[in-house]
Design brief:
Helix content of chain B: 55-70%
Largest interface: A-B, 77 and 84 residues
Radius of gyration of chain A: 42 Å
Shape of chain B: globular
Number of strands of chain A: 0
InterPro entries (chain C): CcmE (IPR004329), CcmE-like_sf (IPR036127), NA-bd_OB-fold (IPR012340)
Largest sheet of chain A: none
Main location (chain C): membrane
Structural class of chain A: mainly alpha
CATH architecture of one domain in chain A: Alpha Horseshoe
Oligomer: heterotrimer
CATH topology of one domain in chain A: Serine Threonine Protein Phosphatase 5, Tetratricopeptide repeat
Distance between the termini of chain A: 77 Å
Shape of chain A: elongated
Distance between the termini of chain B: 60 Å
GO molecular function (chain C): heme binding; metal ion binding
Helix content of chain A: over 70%
Largest sheet of chain B: 6 strands, antiparallel
Number of helices of chain A: 17
Keywords (chain C): Cell membrane, Cytochrome c-type biogenesis, Heme, Iron, Membrane, Metal-binding, Signal-anchor, Transmembrane, Transmembrane helix
Protein name (chain C): Cytochrome c-type biogenesis protein CcmE
Strand content of chain B: 5-15%
Number of helices of chain B: 23
Order of helices and strands of chain A: HHHHHHHHHHHHHHHHH
CATH class of one domain in chain A: Mainly Alpha
Chain lengths: 367, 660, 163
């Protein structure tokens, strides 16, 4: 409302600027004239002569010349009598009164956004936290941390959010900072490892594994660290090791741990003979959970890895990981075609080709 | 509310500009004074609204209102307040808004202080200003609107580029704009004269102060930009002949020519048609400077393709104003009456020579700047026309100009006495010859060209001094009378002398810097000593410091000469880790007009640091010269003869009374 | 002197100055213009050793080698070709692997580009927007190169005649 009031005031001011001179009867004084300039030039010559700057004869010549111009100017000045054309004035007044506001408002409405208020930063940071999109809050926290990089609690809060947003590389950095400034802990280490694995497309890299090992060193029973250590073993093809780790984890786990079904499903996947017999219900629940929670995520990670390798095929280790992942997911066909692609990619490099073939042997992928 | 009010103010300014560009023209056509007076009030109101709009944008930047696209893209909440404000014009949209604000300011000044102008001339001038303003408001609103909004505002802005956070960079664009836009007034006067079909000496007198104001700002703006490049870019160069600089140099050259030809017109009623043409050309070059640089067209034709709407609009504006005014000129120029006669050897003749050389020099810069662009459009070849081209063309054209410069003010109007002028310049000539001889002996076997150039510069400076000496009759009459006469000398004469001397002084700086510049480039470890031009610079050590958002590596040098320690210099290099960019902060040590310049490069694996050290003799003269020129301009501007025109109406009325 | 004679003097003088200027411009054009070339174009045009030109492109990531006494080697790439460059001196602040660069110099006998000036693509302009634009321009730069082979092929005959 205030906005429209301000607009109205401004419009009135603009209209007034046009109407005011129209309403005034023109005074006889019609601005300056050339004659004045020439008179001044004459005076200037007198001054110059008095100061001895120019000679008398030159001054006389100049005077004659300027006087001639002065006469001409004086002649032409009176041939333009002041007239007033009422019709034109009325037309201008109407344009100002009607045309100006209509044109201005129409033009403005096609461009402006009168419904939007101001959003100065100060008022926004104080109030609007709850209903802002998550990106904004993250940006806010990041800006804060850029100024105060040693705020460990800030990093601790930020890191999981980044991980959830899929910004794994940033999450890794944030977890590292959290460890630096908020103190080392098993949870932080295993979260960092998880972020590292996520950033590597779901593969537990050596770097990630090191973090999980550190976490286990601090807290031997940490379920996340142990789970991922098992996963690392599985990805390396050491199924028995993986099964052993997971069995140990299950043995110590409380009966109602929410992650139990996940581990049991994993155990079933590696074909552990000693896997506890699961009731059909539990199996189904675990399966549901797997589908819902992890299926999509893993699929995404594997796809990312595949794309990366398509762009840069030198990474033998990466190819092996990809094939392993396909095998784990039970997609033998894809694993086989990945192998073909991998062979093509490193065909020129005998050393790499040898590595690839070695690795494939352990995978149990024929051909 | 602030954003929308600013937006609406801009729309109103457009509406007023449209009225300002039509109603007064009709009034002048039908001789209606009230209609002509509309020009004045609308020009003032337009200034008010343009000012309100700019203030609104500034407030938005200061409060970091990221719901405005322009603020979001070009600001950041962590910028220091000063750079939030200067950031307003640090981007295309904001700079265009500043441009129209300055345009409105000049229009408002003409409206407010143009009492001495004939009514119809004022109406026409302001109407032409209205056309320009309307075109620009439309351009801003349609293609470069700074008030566009984002419905769900982001929390943080995008720009925190450290290179842009510099006070020199922040201040010099407005100075350049004051210059560019100031020439719009002489353009409007020229077009008004063509429309009226009438032009006379009085016109020149009215146009001169405005041209002078624009010229002063442009001179200072160019000098400031050059000094900024010198200390900030870290390699000690002060003029690169790059398109951006050329774009500001061209209007300056044309404007300088205009300033001189307007004198001829005022005093002798000659060169009318030429002066009109120059006014049009000067502003056209200013438009070109604003637009081509801003739109990036000069650096690459392809920049045009990125925003076709904007590019087409720019082309339209350029065609409309440059083409339109030149057409009007071709059509109407013949109706202007011929002016006074003069002999080739005369003050007029000298000023014609000045114009000839200045415009030709301007044309060569124009060719060098736009030829690559034309070639790229036609053949697709990318070439670069660098400093050698300009040195080879611009230099030879400026030499005769400078050599003739001291003669100009010595010659009389109408018919001059070259021999007499030469006699009066004997002292200056002898001074120049002595300087040449001394320099030659001193730098024997060195540069042959430099002493000659410095001799020329000394001739120019001494010429300016002897002009003053002649006028006050120094050494010929008793000193007290001479002083009195000096006081009585018109300030414009002093201004001329200062401006001419300024050129000479800048030339001395340029020649010394380019010829006797010594440099040391190498890697240094702590306690190493570099010797440059008799100075010893010992690297004491390198320290690291954490700034607000950067890490800074500071090297400390102890400078000594002949065993005597002079000062400590601390150049540094800042790394803005979050942005992945770094800046070099050069250290300067000023000794008289000479400077020692140290800037840092990278650190290598063994801990040695790359260093460049320059000794730049008399380098500061390069910028003192323009400052002196601008001061001369200011003196001329303060000359009461320029402010005249009509005596105050009230006074005139009183003066008439006794006669009745 | 009559009005006509005076006018002729002035016109004659102006023409003389213009002729001198034109001669200067043409002379300078012949000697001091350097072509801008990307590595691909340089390969096509076969610049003889010693002829100066400006080489533009992106600094090939991983190619930067720093030698003794501020000597630097790096490669300039444009997507389809690369050219090794040697330079001695301090690189500009904005020089970075993977970023745009313009080097001025000439090829030596072994086909290595010896640069005497290296400009990182955006420090030749100092207006705020232009620095920002230059950053954006690097995007277009790559585009240019995509379009370039066709453009150079079309312009090659013109080039030949103008030499």
């Amino acid at each position: 409302m205030t906005l429209w009031f301000v607009f109205a005031l401004m419009t009135v001011a603009a209209i007034f600027a046009v109407l005011w001179p129209l309403s005034r009867n023109s005074s006889a004084q019609a601005g300056g004239s050339e004659a004045a300039v020439y008179k001044d030039q004459l005076a200037e010559i007198d001054r110059d002569v008095a100061a001895g700057l120019i000679g008398v004869s030159e001054a006389e010549a100049a005077r004659v010349e300027i006087s001639r111009r002065l006469l001409a100017a004086a002649d032409s000045q009176h041939n333009l009598p002041a007239r007033s054309s009422l019709g034109l004035r009325r037309a201008s007044a109407i344009v100002a009164l009607v045309g100006l506001p209509i044109a201005a408002v129409t033009f403005y409405l096609s461009l402006g956004s009168p419904q939007l208020g101001d959003f100065p930063l100060v008022s926004r940071t104080r109030t609007a936290d709850a209903n802002q999109p998550i990106d904004n809050m993250v940006a806010q926290v990041e800006a804060h941390l850029e100024k105060n990089p040693t705020d460990g609690r800030g990093w601790t809060v930020l890191a999981p959010v980044l991980a959830r947003l899929g910004r794994y590389d940033d999450a890794v950095r944030a977890y590292r900072n959290a460890i630096n400034y908020a103190g080392d802990s098993a949870d932080h280490r295993s979260d960092l490892g998880e972020a590292l694995a996520a950033a590597a497309g779901g593969v537990v890299t050596a770097e990630a594994k090191a973090e999980f090992e550190r976490a286990v060193a601090q807290n031997a029973d940490g379920p996340k660290a142990n789970y991922f250590l098992g996963l690392a073993a599985e990805q390396d093809g050491r199924r028995a090791d993986a099964a052993a780790i997971w069995r140990g984890l299950l043995a110590k786990a409380p009966a109602d741990a929410p992650w139990r079904p996940l581990i049991e499903a994993a155990l079933a996947r590696v074909g552990d003979p000693a896997a506890p017999a699961l009731s059909n219900d539990a199996m189904a629940a675990a399966k549901d959970m797997n589908e819902a929670d992890r299926g999509a995520m893993i699929r995404g990670m594997v796809d990312r890895l595949a794309t990366r390798l398509k762009q840069n095929g030198d990474d033998v280790e990466g190819w092996l990981r990809l094939m392993r992942a396909y095998m784990v997911m039970g997609e033998r066909d894809k694993a086989a075609s990945a192998l073909t692609e991998a062979r093509q990619a490193v065909a020129n490099d005998t050393e790499r080709l040898r590595q690839l073939n070695e690795g494939v042997k352990n995978l149990g992928l024929g051909g | 509310m602030i954003a929308e009010a600013g937006h609406y103010a801009l729309v109103l300014a457009l509406a007023l500009a449209l009225i300002q560009s039509t109603v007064p023209m009709l009034g002048a056509r039908w001789g209606d004074q009230a209609l002509m007076n509309v020009a004045r009030s609308t020009a003032l109101a337009q200034l008010l609204f343009a000012g309100a709009s700019f203030t609104a944008l500034t407030m938005l930047h200061v409060t970091s209102d990221f719901s405005v696209v322009n603020v979001f893209e070009n600001s950041h909440s962590m910028k220091p307040l000063l750079y939030k404000i200067t950031g307003v014009w640090g981007n295309h949209e904001g700079s265009m808004l500043l441009w129209v604000l300055i345009l409105a300011l000049f229009g408002g000044l003409v409206a407010a202080f143009g009492n001495n102008l004939p009514l119809s001339l004022r109406a026409h001038v302001l109407a032409v200003q209205g056309w320009i303003a309307a075109a620009f408001y439309l351009f801003i609103l349609v293609t470069s609107n700074p008030f566009l909004r984002i419905a769900s505002p982001p929390i943080e802005g995008r720009d925190l580029n450290p290179v842009l956070q510099d006070i020199g960079l922040a201040v010099h664009p407005p100075m350049l704009y004051l210059g560019y836009v100031g020439f719009s007034i002489s353009f409007s006067f020229a077009v008004a004269a063509l429309i009226e079909g009438r032009i006379d000496a009085a016109w020149a007198r009215w146009v001169r102060p405005w041209t002078l104001v624009a010229w002063i700002f442009l001179t200072l703006g160019i000098a400031m930009g050059s000094y900024w490049a010198y200390y900030e870019l870290g390699w000690g160069g002060w003029w690169f002949w790059d398109p951006v600089e050329n774009a500001s140099l061209m209007p300056w050259l044309a404007g300088t020519a205009l300033l001189h030809s307007a004198v001829v017109m005022e005093k002798r009623n000659a060169l009318k048609v030429w002066t009109i043409l120059l006014s049009i050309l000067t502003f056209s070059l200013s438009l070109l400077g604003t637009f081509l640089v801003r739109s990036g067209v000069l650096t690459s034709v392809h920049a045009f393709a990125t925003d076709p709407a904007r590019g087409v609009f720019i082309l339209l504006i350029l065609c409309l104003f440059i083409g339109g005014s030149l057409l009007l000129y071709a059509w109407r120029a013949s109706t202007l009456k011929q002016g006074g006669l003069f002999a080739p050897i005369s003050r007029e003749g000298a000023l014609v020579l000045n114009n000839l050389f200045l415009t030709t020099a301007c044309a060569t810069v124009f060719i060098g700047t736009l030829y690559p662009l034309a070639l790229e459009v036609v053949t697709g070849d990318k070439i670069s026309v660098g400093a050698p081209f300009f040195n080879l063309t611009f230099g030879p054209l400026f030499v005769p100009l400078l050599a003739a410069m001291p003669f100009g003010p010595m010659l009389a109007w109408k018919r001059g006495d070259l021999l007499g002028a030469a006699q009066r310049l004997t002292a200056a000539g002898i001074a120049a010859l002595i300087v040449i001889a001394v320099l030659w002996a001193w730098t024997f076997g060195g540069a042959t060209f430099a002493p000659l150039a410095i001799g020329l510069a000394v001739f120019v400076v001494a010429g300016a001094v002897s002009d003053l000496a002649e006028r006050v009759g120094l050494f010929r009459i008793p000193l007290t009378i001479a002083v009195a006469r000096a006081r009585g000398l018109p300030r414009a004469t002093w201004g001329t002398a200062f401006a001419h001397a300024g050129i000479g002084i800048a030339l001395i700086g340029i020649v010394c810097e380019t010829t006797w510049n010594t440099e040391y480039i190498g890697s240094m470890k702590p306690d190493h000593v570099a010797k440059v031009a008799g100075y010893q610079l010992k690297l004491d050590g390198v320290t690291q410091r954490q700034g607000p958002n950067f890490r800074e590596m500071i090297a400390q040098f102890t400078v000594s000469r002949d065993g005597e320690t002079l000062e400590v210099m601390t150049p540094s290099k800042r790394d803005f880790t979050t942005r992945g960019s770094s800046t070099t902060e050069a250290a300067l040590l000023t000794r008289g007009a000479s400077q020692l310049y140290v800037s840092l490069g990278e650190t290598n694996a063994e801990g040695a640091i790359a260093v460049r050290i320059y000794h730049k003799p008399l380098v500061l003269l390069i910028w003192w010269g323009p400052v002196l020129m601008a001061f001369g301009g200011l003196l001329s501007l303060s000359d009461r003869r320029l402010r005249v025109g009509a005596p105050k109406p009230a006074k005139a009325a009183r003066a008439l009374q006794p006669a009745e | 002197m009559t009005r006509k004679q005076r006018r002729l003097t002035m016109i004659g003088g102006s023409l003389a100055v213009l002729a001198i200027a034109a001669a200067l411009v043409l002379n300078a054009m012949r000697d001091s213009i350097v072509f801008f070339s990307t590595p691909t174009m340089a390969a096509e045009k076969q610049f003889p050793p010693g002829q100066r030109f400006r080489l533009g492109g992106l600094v090939q990531p991983g190619s930067l080698v720093r030698g003794d006494n501020l000597a630097v080697n790096f490669s300039v790439a444009d997507g389809s070709a690369t050219l090794p460059v040697t330079y001695k001196g301090i690189l500009p602040d904005l020089f970075r692997e993977g970023q745009g660069v313009v080097a001025e110099g000439a090829l030596d006998a072994s086909g290595v580009f010896k640069a005497d000036t290296v400009l990182a693509k955006h420090d030749e302009t100092y207006m705020p927007k232009d620095v920002a634009d230059a950053l954006k321009k690097q995007g277009h730069w790559k585009d240019d190169y995509g379009a370039k082979p066709g453009a150079t092929a079309a312009s090659a005959p013109v080039q030949g005649t103008s030499k």
